[in-house]
Amino acid sequence: MKREKNKRRELSLDRRTFLKGAALGLAGTALPLDKADASFWETFFQKHFREMNDTEIKKVLQRLEKEAEQKYKKAIKIGNEKAMPGVLFGYGLDLSRCIGCRRCVYACVDENNQSKDPQIHWITVLRFKKGEKFSDLEESEKYYNPPQVPEKEYFYMPVQCQQCENPPCVRSCPTQATWKDPDGIVVIDYNWCIGCRYCMAACPYGARHFNWSEPGRKPEEINPNTHYLGNRPRYKGVVEKCTFCIQRTRNGRYPACVEACPVGARKFGNLLDPNSEMRYLIEHKRVFRLKEALNTNPKFYYFFAYGR
Amino acid sequence: MFYLIKNFFIALRQIAIGSKRYYIWVAFLSFLILLGASAYFDQSRRGLIITGMRDQVSWGFYISNFTFLVGVAAAAVLLVIPAYIYNFKPIKEIVLFGELLAISAISMCLLFVMIDMGQPLRGWHILPVIGSMNFPASLLAWDVIVLNGYLAINTFISFYVLYRLSIGKEYKMSVIGPLIILSIPWAVSIHTVTAFLYNGLSARPFWNASILAPRFLASAFCSGPAIMIVLFQIIRKQSEVEIEDRAIFKIAELIAYAMGLNLFLLGAEVFKEFYSGSIDTYSIQYLYFGLHGKSALVPWIWTATLLNISAFLLFLLPRTRENFTTLNMACLFVIIGVYIEKGLGLVVPGFVPDTLGEIYEYTPTTPELLITLGVWATGALIYTLLLKFAVPIYTGKLRFETKA
Fold it and tell me: Is A75 inside any structural domain?
C-alpha cells in the first residue's frame, strides 16, 4: 500500500516540469539536430539565477566553465561571489582632472571580455567645448580623435553605468533578467535575458549594450578571472553593461578603470563606510549626478576637485 | 464529438480547394514567406547585426511594424461598437471579417516581437509560473498579457459565431454578449498599453508625453478601418458576400472624425514642442527638419503629414467619401500616412539623438525588409485561409452535419 503511494508520487509530475516538457516538445521541432546534446538542453532549461540554490548554481558554473574552455581553449574561472553585508558601492569622477585619454575605456575592455569585433565599450567619454552647456549632452562629441589630449579648448566627461538606486532598466525588463544586488550593483543574468532591448530604451545613460552578433574576441585576449554576473563570456543576442568590475570589487579590489586612470580622476568606495574616500568627497566636494531630474538616483558622483 | 471532428475536417478541406487565382495568390504569399524565412534563418545564425539597428537606435523597423499593427488590431473594435451596441445592421453583418482581421494582425504583432528578440528560444522566460514575468512592473509584461488576451477573445468570438452559423443556428448573445462588451475596453487597452510602453520611459523625452496614448488610439481608428474598407471591397468582389455601401460609407465617416482628432492631437504636440523650445525638442526637430545635417526621416514624415491631411479632407466631404475612386484613394493615403507616422516616425526619433546626444541615422537593411515582408505575407496568408472557410459558412454555402 505504502509502496504504491510512493510509486504514484514518482509518476506524478509537478506543473512546472510538465509545462517545461511541453515547451521542450515544441522547441525540439524548431531546432537543428546537431545542437540537441545534453548541454544544449541544460542551457535551455537553466533556471533564473536567483531561483537556483547553491548546488544548482555550482552545477551551472561548472557547465559554463566547461563550455568556455571548449570555446577558448583555456581554463576560465566563473565565480559567484555574493554581495558583502554593509557594503554599498559608490563611484566618483573628478571632471577637473579627466584628460580624455580613454585609457579607462580600453582597460575596461581588457578586463571585462567585451566583444572586440564588433567593438563594445562600456565607458563612453564625451568631449565638450569649454563654455558650452553640458547638461545638454547633444552638444557633446563621442568620436573625438585629436593627435594629443588634453586639448586646450575642450573638457571631457566619461559616462558608464551609473548604478542607479532607482534603475529604470530593472523596472522595464519583462523577465526580471536584470536586478540590483544588495551592494547596489545592477547585474544581468546573461542566461535569462531574452534580448528584447527594452532596458536599452529605458536607460537614460546609454549604459546598456547589445551583442548584435557573436562576441568576437581572441582566446589570448580573454581574461580568465570572471564572475557569473559580470565579465564571463557573453552570448549573441543578450544585453551587457558595466558592473563596477563585480569580479574585482567583491574581492576587495578596485575596478579596472580606477586603476587605469593616469590622473587619478576616478574614485571608488563603500558609501556605507564613514571613513571611505567616497564619503570624504561627498562631504567635502560639491558633487552632482547625471540627469538628476529623472530621479534615478545614481551612485556615480561627478565633482570638480579644483578649478582650472 | 464525431461530428465535431468531421466538421473540423470539412472546414479544413476548404483551404485546400479553390480557384486558380486562389492557388496563385497562396503560392505568391508562400514565396514571400520563404524569402523572409531564409533571411530570418541568416539573422538567427549571424545575429541582429544584419539589421540596421545598433546600440544607439536599438529598436527599428520590426518594432515600428509591431506598433502599427497593434493599432490595426485594436480598430476591429470600431466595428463592434455600432454593430452590437447600437444594432446598426449593415455593420453587424460584416463585423466578423473585422474580427478575423484582428486575429491576423495580432498574429503578425507576436511574430514581429519574436523576430526582434536576440534570444527567441528563451521566450518562455516571459511567461508567468514557468518563467518569471516581471508583472506589474514591466509594461512589456502587460503587453504580453493584453495582446494574447485580445487574440483569445477575438478567436473565441469569431469561431463561435462561425460554428453556430455552420450548423444553421443563430449564435447566443448570452454566450458572446459579455465577451463582446469585454472586447471593447480590451481593444482600447492593447493600444494604450503599447503607447505606455514608450510613454513611461523618462529617458526618451520624445515618447514621454501624455498625449501619446490618445494619439495612438486616434491614428489606429484611421488606419484599421481604412484597411477594412479596402478588404471589404475585395471580399464582396471575390465572393458572394454582400456588403452594403451604407456600411462602408459609415465606416468612412468614422475615419473622418478619427483623423480630425488625430490631426488635432498632432498639432497640440507640435505646438508644445516647438514653442517651448527646450532641449527636449531635438527629436521632433530631427523628425521634421533634420538635425546637424542628418535628415533621413524628413521626407517620410512630410509625406505622411500631407497624406493624412488630404485623406482627412477626402473622408470629410460626403461627395468624395461616397465615391469609390476617391474613397479608395483616401484609404490608401491613410494607411501609408499612419504606417509612417506610427511606425518609423514614432520609434526612431525616440532614439535620435540617443541618450548621450549622438545622432545615429537608422535605415532598415535589405534582410530586415525581407523578413518584414515575410511577416506581412504570413499575416495575409492567415487572413486568406481564415476567409477561405469563413466566407462559405457566412454565405450559407457550407453547412455542417449535425445529429438532428
Answer: no
Are A300 and A129 in contact by the 8 Å Cβ rule? The answer is: no
Indicate the pLDDT class of residue B403, thresholds 50, 70 and 90: low
A5, pLDDT greater than 60: no
Domain boundaries, chain B: 2-395
The residue whose grid cell reads 526619433 is: B349
Instruction: Quote the Cα angle for B342-B346-B350, to 5°.
Output: 165
What is the percent of chain B with per-residue pLDDT over 90, rounded to a whole number?
Answer: 75
Q: Are residues A121 and A221 in the same domain?
A: yes
Asked if A213 and B49 come within 8 Å (Cβ–Cβ), the reply is yes
* d(C-alpha B331, C-alpha B317), whole Å: 14
Q: Residue A186: which H helix or E strand, with range? A: strand A186-188
Kindly report the nearest CA distance between residue B166 and chain A, in angstroms: 32
Please state which architecture CATH assigns to domain B2-395.
Up-down Bundle (1.20)
Residue B358 CB partners (closer than 8 Å, separation 6+): A142, B56
| Residue A195 per-residue DSSP state | -
Q: Cell numbers for B328, please give them.
A: 479608395
Cβ count within 10 A of residue A168: 21
Would you say residue A12 has pLDDT above 50? no
Provide the number of structural domains found in chain A: 2
ipTM above 0.90, yes or no: yes
Q: What mean pLDDT do residues B228-239 have?
A: 92
The SS3 of residue A234 is: coil
A216 lies within 8 A of chain B by CB:
no
Higher pLDDT: B92 or B181? It is: B181
Contacts of A51 in chain B (CB under 8 A): 132
* Locus of grid cell 564619503: A279
**Min Cα–Cα distance to chain A from B63, Å:** 10
Q: Does the beta-carbon distance from A237 to B119 stay under 8 Å? A: yes
CB of A96 within 8 Å of a chain B CB? The answer is no
Q: Are B203 and B355 in contact (CB under 8 A)?
A: yes
Host H or E run for residue A91: strand A89-94
Q: B186-224: buried (b, 16+ CB within 10 Å) or exposed (e) per residue?
A: bbbbbbbbbbbbbbbbbbbbbbbbeebbbbbbbbbbbbb
Please report whether residue A70 resides in a domain. no
- Given a cut of 90, is residue B2 above it in pLDDT? no
